[in-house]
Design goal:
49 strands
């Protein structure tokens, strides 16, 4: 009897409980237009503290506290938000949602370039490129600079090699201008620059850029590239344009990981190096009742080094080159040379000293960091927003190999076979931004503060201080630290007035003020990293400090700050639906050099349909960075294959005044642009924009003013440079000096073209074709030094030589063309891209076309255009999982090789050819650099294959 009652009562009890648990409930499924489930969609009850997300199968369930009428909102990134009314009673109701793909995705709207209502890129008054999450994730590039180099036609950046700290921070160019002439924003707020000033022989020499790779790609919703002068709107540095990185907001859980490596053949060898592992995560949570959101993204990237170095062509690795005796016959000399070389080669073979003794390629790198982005809404009109990021990056880059024959730079008791020194860096990057925006009466206001800091610590390993007593030198040193810190406070207000009827339809008025504080520091290294122990080789002094990178001395230490106060006004008027005009002006006052006023006028006229004519004229400026004003050091640099001590002095050093050079001034620009933009037949969009930029007082890093010597190496007492250097260095320990100065006027002209067409090929397939191109040319119109430099032809020639001119005029591609096709069919996606990188030209510092210089004409070299093609295929198993495989540079294309002189050839090292060897007749540094590094095209790592797995829910 009891068992029978239990059989009846227990199911009834659980039925009653389950009815209570799910009473007044709502459940359903969220799918896309093709019927696929959407996991991670946000389901909210508007006006109530109720909400949930769909599970892996797109299902959701909600329980309501009471019966009544409710409104349900369902949203998902890239889809049109859907809302529906529902009447809840004492039952569990079912309500399914079908989300349509958005016709105007977030990435179709830009917020920079105008302080009025955000516009689509074809409606913007100035040209703006839009790069979405899909664009940055479609291929294997994991660094932001490399992604932009292959996506944005007017952007150029390549990894550098054997260039000290620049191996770890990629210099970048927009519209052919320098790394410090583009302003970077994050969520519309100024991003701090790096602590590094590029002083080695790379593109962007003498400039200070922003480390874009310190921003995790996983945190980015979209990138807006404003290709127009905008200093009147955003302040200093925006001569070439503005890159605005917009962080993610409400997004589902997203994980991805990828692995790849080079799979390449070049130089008669096969390469499988550069192994790269990447993992990232992001998630954005929406607060209930439309109270805001918070998003966190993190990324870890590990990249191994690559090496595309050639063989060292110096005939002798252990022995000094013999000279022919006064009474020695040629035959006897050749026999003696051959005997010495045979013994030298045998010693190298026995000790494992390889002629492939350099690392010429990407450095080792580990990069991990995260970004937080959020907003909290107070009511309907006031929001507290914030963003914070931290990145820690370590790297190891090689310098030049020190051979046993280089006795003044080596301790043979420690390194009997020579050594390859390394510059190990630890780079920390911090940023924090907080702001409040809302309403002040009828005005919108935005009050914010943004802080950022970049530090670079240098540790030199596998090295030696050759000046210390034999056997006593450490083999690693702490060489010092660079730091740059910036704090920016902004207050902006704007109001849009609309008018009924009349000539003027609307007027947007904006005013704002900014206060910025910059701080730059150089911190000294440990004593032995820079000191001289006094050891001599015969009568020759040995090199001071850690080889490859001597530490910063106490005399180099710097802690300098400045502040800047700016104010702007911006007016944008619409005259009916066809005409938009804008005028902006900005005044800034710097505590270290004074004030500047910039202005800008823009206009757009709708010609017919969705096609518009747009144009702009602007003045701008770039304030000299604190780095350029105060950086100073002594470094070991190689000139024509020889190590020299180079003194970099700041403009407050008395030696600079000896050259007649004073304090740095701001660079001043005038720019104009004119273009067409629009849409045809709803799917085809285009933008065509021409531009012209004149810049005066551009800051350059001078060529090296070296001491004048006779052919036998003796100092010339009457030499102008000798007399100047002797005022601070009478013992002639420093061989040359270089400094920053305003010296050149340039003109940059070009045209940008972006064409896109979308084809619908059925219910489950589509094709997107895009063509993007840039053509630009920079010309140095004049070089103007101080009165003293202008009065002496030898000083004038060294201020800005042919090599430095080529860095400005021809070191980045003069044109670039990007062709991309994306084909989607059901669950498969095929992406093919080919990019044509235009020619670049290197000019030798000494003109080889003058016969008296005794140099081969091939030292001036133009590297031909190349096509680099990428391909990937992705399979979307469901809304949660996707798999991608592909290859970048699938056809294994390399740049043209550097010219190698017959006397500097690895095949001509024996007998007569070996004894007449000369490594100064080409730019391969004794055959070890076979691809160009002084110009920036597309790198030289060859084919890269990879696989990627992504999960979204």
């Amino acid at each position: 009897m009891i068992k029978s009652l239990l059989k009846i009562s227990l199911p009834a009890f659980f039925l009653i409980i389950s009815t209570q648990l799910f009473a007044q409930g709502l459940k359903g499924k969220v799918t896309d237009s093709t019927g696929l489930a959407i996991p991670g969609a946000t389901v909210q009850v508007i006006g109530a503290k109720l909400g949930t997300s769909t599970d892996a199968n797109g299902l959701y369930a909600l329980k309501f506290p009471a019966a009544g009428a409710y409104k349900i909102r369902v949203s998902f990134t890239g889809s049109v938000t859907s809302e529906s009314d529902v009447q809840i009673d004492n039952t569990v109701k079912t309500l399914d949602f079908v989300l349509q793909d958005s016709k105007a995705l977030l990435e179709d709207v830009v917020v920079i370039g105008s302080r009025s209502t955000p516009r689509t890129n074809i409606e913007s008054v100035v040209p703006v490129d839009l790069i979405s999450t899909k664009d940055v994730k479609a291929f294997a590039q994991t660094d932001l600079t490399q992604i932009l180099n292959f996506v944005a036609p007017s952007f150029s950046s390549n990894r550098q090699t054997v260039a000290d700290g620049t191996d770890h921070i990629d210099p970048a160019s927009l519209r052919g201008l320098g790394p410090d002439q583009v302003l970077v924003l994050v969520n519309g707020k100024r991003r701090h620059t790096t602590a590094l000033v590029n002083i080695n022989g790379t593109f962007g020499r003498g400039s200070v850029g922003t480390d874009l790779n310190s921003i995790p790609v996983a945190a980015i919703e979209r990138i807006e590239v404003l290709r127009d002068g905008a200093a009147a709107q955003y302040g200093s540095d925006a001569i070439a344009g503005v890159i605005n990185i917009v962080l993610k907001k409400v997004t589902p859980y997203s994980f991805s990981t990828s692995f790849g490596q080079s799979s390449s053949s070049a130089l008669g060898r096969d390469f499988s190096d550069g192994r790269t592992f990447q993992a990232d995560f992001s998630k954005g949570w929406a607060f209930k009742n439309d109270k805001g959101f918070i998003n966190f993204a993190g990324q870890y990237l590990q990249r191994d080094f690559t090496n595309r170095g050639g063989l060292d062509t110096r005939p002798l690795l252990y022995s000094a080159n013999p000279t022919k005796g006064a009474t020695e016959t040629e035959a006897a000399f050749q026999a003696r040379f051959a005997s010495i070389k045979a013994a030298d080669d045998a010693r190298a073979a026995a000790n494992g000293l390889d002629r492939n003794n350099m690392r010429v390629g990407n450095s080792d790198s580990k990069n991990g960091g995260g970004f937080l982005n959020g907003q909290f809404n107070f009511g309907k009109t006031t929001q507290l927003y914030y963003a914070a990021g931290f990145t820690h990056k370590t790297g190891s880059a090689a310098g030049f190999y020190r051979l046993p024959t280089q006795t003044t730079q080596i301790d043979l008791s420690l390194y009997p076979n020579g050594f390859l020194p390394f510059i190990d860096t630890k780079i920390n990057d911090y940023s924090f931004s907080v702001g409040l925006r809302g309403k002040l009466g009828t005005w919108d206001y935005d009050l914010s503060n943004t802080s950022g800091e970049n530090t670079i610590k240098f540790d030199i390993t596998n090295t030696v201080n050759a000046s210390l007593p034999i056997g006593t030198s450490p083999t690693s040193f702490y060489a010092g630290e660079l730091l740059f810190r910036q704090n920016t406070s902004n207050f902006d207000i704007n109001k849009k007035h609309t008018f009924d009827g009349g000539f003027l339809t609307s007027l947007n008025t904006a005013f704002g003020a900014e206060f910025r504080v910059d701080n730059y520091q150089i911190k000294e290294g440990e004593l032995l990293s820079y000191s001289n122990g006094g050891r001599l080789i015969g009568t020759s002094p040995t090199a001071s400090g850690s080889q490859v990178f001597p530490g910063f001395k106490p005399a180099n230490a710097v802690d300098q700050s400045r502040n800047n106060l700016g104010a702007y006004a911006d007016f944008e008027a619409e005259f009916g639906p066809r005409v938009t005009l804008e005028a902006a002006g900005r005044y800034e006052n710097f505590s270290d050099f004074g004030s500047n006023f910039s202005y800008k006028f823009t206009g757009k006229v709708t010609l017919f349909g969705d096609i518009s004519l747009r144009g702009a004229y602007a003045t701008g400026f770039r304030a000299p960075s604190l780095h350029q004003q105060y950086f100073n050091n002594e470094s070991t640099q190689f000139v024509a294959g020889n190590a020299t001590q180079v003194l970099t002095v700041n403009n407050s050093n008395p030696i600079v005044s000896q050259f007649g050079v004073g304090a740095l001034k701001p660079e001043i620009s005038k720019s104009g642009s004119l273009g067409l933009a629009g849409r045809i037949a709803k799917t085809f969009t285009f933008t065509i924009d021409a531009y012209n930029i004149d810049i005066s007082d551009r800051i350059v890093f001078s060529s090296q003013y070296a001491r004048e010597r006779t052919s036998a190496g003796a100092l010339i007492p009457t030499g102008v440079v000798n007399q100047i250097l002797n005022t601070v260095d009478p013992s002639a320990q420093v061989n040359s000096v270089q400094f920053f100065t305003n010296a050149i006027t340039t003109n940059t002209a070009g045209i940008d073209v972006v064409l896109t067409n979308k084809f619908s090929l059925g219910a489950k397939s589509s094709l997107i074709l895009s063509v993007a191109g840039n053509v630009n040319k920079t010309v140095v119109r004049s070089v103007q030094g101080s009165d003293k430099i202008e009065s002496d032809p030898s000083l004038k020639a060294k201020l800005f030589d042919r090599l430095e001119r080529s860095r400005f005029e021809s070191s980045v591609p003069k044109n670039k063309l990007n062709l991309t096709a994306t084909y989607n069919i059901d669950k498969l996606s095929f992406v093919a891209r080919t990019v044509r990188f235009g020619e670049v030209t290197f000019l030798n510092a000494v003109d080889p076309n003058i016969a008296a210089n005794g140099l081969p004409a091939q030292l001036d070299q133009t590297f031909s255009p190349k096509w680099v093609s990428d391909f990937s295929v992705s399979y979307q198993a469901n809304k949660m999982w996707s798999v991608t495989v592909g290859a970048n540079n699938i056809f294994d294309v390399y740049p043209d090789k550097l010219y190698i002189d017959p006397r500097d050839n690895v095949n001509n090292l024996s007998g007569v050819a070996g004894s007449t060897y000369s490594g100064s007749l080409d730019n391969t540094s004794n055959g070890r650099f076979l691809y160009p590094r002084a110009v920036s095209q597309f790198g030289f790592s060859g084919r890269y294959v990879y696989g990627k797995i992504a999960c979204t829910f």
